[in-house]
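quick one before i forget lol
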Amino acid sequence: MRKLFVGVAAIASLAIVGVPAAMATPKGEFAVFAQCPTKAAEVNGCIYSPTESGHITIGKQEVPITKTQVLQGGLLEPTEPFVKHLAPALNGETLTKTAQKVPGGLLGIKCKEISNIIVRIGCELLFEEGLTEVKAVTELAAPASSVYLNTAAEQLGEGTALYLPIKVKLENSLFGSECYIGSTSEPIKLELTTGATKGGPTGKPGTKTSKEEGKILVISGTSLVSNTFSAPKATGCGLFGVLDGLIDEKLGLPAASGSNTAVLNGKVEIANSEFVEESEG
């Protein structure tokens, strides 16, 4: 009985002081903004932008985007028209660390080019799974505030619509935990556009709609592209630098601007932070 009384008293005390604000989460259509730091200084908006398909090609290796990766967090007060820098997501993953399978795995055998479906499946099981499997994880290589969105450039298809400094982690049991292409000191700088690139892919401005009586702006069907970024040599891949050299040889690193491409297809959702907070009630 004493334990029961203590438990009831604890619950009652919570009711008196109220549930901590950090436990409140956005509701309904605003739920996608759960990682937005609405109470942080200078944050006046929230962003949720999933990339659902596309690819990143670095040197000789193309990695298709088959699993959704999300850019999320707050939007800071603009320092220039239409340009908004990001504030970090509450959970620390402003860009979610989503692993994408590298076709061909460690040996680079192009299984997808095999026309016989049975042989192709066997190839994938042998060379793209287990010990030979390689995954690529795109991570931010700089603070969230270095990322910015230009909504005017996105709609006009001219200039940089999204600037994203990244590094790519390569995962395999032989590589250890610090195998990267790009770093904080030498990031891969994606200057993505919804317009045309010179000799490369062409992007697509999205279609604007809204939800929640105009409180959430939705830009759907966007395609952000770039072929103007360079990629440095691999580092930290184990065996005293031997694997670094093998990866560089296989991928053709360092890879200069014009030999790499990025195509990110998805959407953008934006809302004022006050609307997101109101939904928590």
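fyi DSSP finds five helices and 14 strands in the chain.
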